[in-house]
User: What shape does this take?
Amino acid sequence: MTENDNASSRPTVADGTSSAAIEVDRLVKLYKQTRAVDGISFSLPRGSITGLLGGNGAGKTTTIAMIMGLVLATSGRVRVLGHRMPEESAAVLGRMNFESPYVDMPMRLTVRQNLTIFGKLYAVKNLTDRIAELADDLDLTEFIDRANGKLSAGQKTRVALAKALINQPELLLLDEPTASLDPDTADWVRAHLERYRRAHNATILLASHNMLEVERLCDRVIIMKRGRVEDDDTPEAILVRYNRTTLEEVFLDVARGRVNGVQEAAR
Amino acid sequence: MTDISLHRGISVLRIGAMILRYWYLLMSSWPRLLELLYWPALQVITWGFIQYYIAQNASFFARAGGTLIGAVILWDILFRGQLGFSISFLEEMWARNLGNLMMSPLKPIEFLLSLMVMSLIRLAIGVIPMTLLALIFFHFNVYSLGLPLIAFFCNLIFTSWSVGIFVSGLVLRNGLGAESIVWTLMFAIMPLACIYYPVSVLPGWLQYVAWSLPPTYVFEGMRALLIEQTFRTDLMLSALAINVVLLVASFWAFLALLRSAKKNGSLLAGGE
Assistant: This one.
């Protein structure tokens, strides 16, 4: 299924009636001659976990950055929690959060200091209690007064996740949240995200290269390739459509231009 | 940080959070603290001895006691004020933390206000000991300038913020490849601001350029005070008027560069 096949059935930004957490409408991003994102549209219902899949350069990070307002779209529209982005970002930035391998937390500051600062930026009430709660939930207590730069990769990821959850966001944007983590820590992070979604009915959009992660967490998958939406459905429906048993096989099919395991050019 | 059109509802809590962030950083790193003290101290000692030597050999400088060392202190307010602003900004680039801030409810104006406060704090740490050194070793009491010192200080700090805002915007747009501008741009106005010599020394056409810079009025005002014992209110008001224009222009430029960075996608890159 292509983006265009789905376009007519999806709610658009223009109708303004949807209660979707994210609505992306014909979004385009051009970098000089490169079309990083090429007219994508999708709508994510509140409380859903959606995986944004695609190879390097597929446009996942650019799409997430446009949703956050960190990158301005060339054309098209984005609506987050009912508000136009970036024009009405002041109304939503306090209700969302993100984690990305492209940003770090200040290295010289301790975990507690970092969380205190971000808690104040997000105007978190009872901040001391919230930090204690996060430290408990994410197992940060042991190193909460250690400088962020002195933590292991797994510990840093948990701290970044604590920062992303400090304001109990309704919408969480995650760019490769378990990249460079060992399987045990990655599994632990996924379990926490699942619990958080259930507890807060939060919407999560995550970009990932990890197909197992997407299969386990996501109730919907958007596959991107060369800036376009190549497919958009539940993981189960996608597996059936591609006649595959894992999303990894589907990913390879899409990346290599195969349909049902057959090279497109050979058909 | 919100889009550029939204600056209403400035939050003191968010500004305070950013100041706390830089304060934590400063207190966690003795090299950062030492750097604040080291250069100003070196400057005042070097120029103090030069002034002392010249005063022994030239009647003008003997009469105009303190013009050199006073100029050094005021120049340091200008230069350190800008560095204090810009280095705090660079800390975010070096830490790759800008994306976190841009995605938070922090607004550009709040971010800039916190950088201004930090420039004052950093300036106090560096310049107050410098003025004490000048007093102890060279018997030059900058505080004896009295109320005019406040006028000099305000005008210089406003200029330093304007330059700081502008160069921070350049780094935001162009990445750390533009970092050297932070350290060098102020030196471009050094010969034109007539720190150590009067404006009349410059060629006629260059004097017009010099008078477009607020620090020129401050240094002329300082010389008028130390040599002629006259406080030139007119000079201070002219400097203030130009500073207002510069501050507005630099803020506008920062927002334009921020918008350009968002168009260009350079906020996530953040590197070279």
